[in-house]
Hints:
The complex is a heterodimer. Chain A has helices spanning about 15-25, 30-45, 55-65, 70-80. Chain A is an all-alpha fold. The longest helix of chain A is centred in the middle third of the chain and has 15 residues, at about 30-45. The radius of gyration of chain B is 15 Å and the shape is globular. The model of chain B has no long low-confidence stretch (mean pLDDT about 95). In chain B, strands 3-2-1-4-5 form a five-stranded parallel sheet. Chain B starts with a strand and ends in a 5-residue tail after the last strand. By secondary structure, chain B is α/β, with parallel strands linked by helices.
Amino acid sequence: MINIVTLTADVTDGIKKMTQELIKTGMYKSQSEIVRDAIRQLAYKYNIGTAPPIDEVRKTFSKAGKKTRKTLAQTVREIRDD
Amino acid sequence: MKYIDTSAFVKYYRYEADEKGAIKIIKLVEDAKKGKTALISSFLLIGECVSAFDKWVRYKLIVPADLNDIIKRFMLDIQELSNSGTLILEPVSTATIANCLDLITKHHLSINDAIHLYSALSNKSLINQFVCSDEILIKAAEKEFLPIANPEKK
Lengths: 82, 154
């Protein structure tokens, strides 16, 4: 089970505005999601952390797939037709 | 040895309930990881898989951090399969592209389809199955007398 903890950070008005803009784009639902994404991207950039278990990846696609009828195989076809 | 097209390989990252044929591909890839079966594909598979995953970011279905994790997992899987010697990835060279031209015009294929078809045909004597779930590529592969295995079909 994933244990959720709270991380508090002081930010400038500019950073706060940026988070609001990112939420407006629809890409993120909350400031927490932005912070999580930013930290994961930093970890990726500096090669910190390991690959997630395969089941976690399938869960991510399963959750995302609920918003669409697309399959990954269909996405491959789209790439080939682009 | 089985040739695995990208349209089939990506199913390893889905559940059967979300994408038909996933259960067969999960078994196939897991068997390959255990050394029970051997797979072959084109090196193009790497680019196509990452491109398909990235497209879901462009559709705003997943966030960039999810993509980073997915790519990490994918690269680890490729590394595991390659290290165990059960996944051969055929290089894409200038000769490959030149040899694909006939296949493109003969079957009216995209270059990516033609690269997979050419990679399979150049290893035809080693391949007992062409694992693919893409109808366009399947039709062309059938005409080239490759033994098709569509994971979406019973």
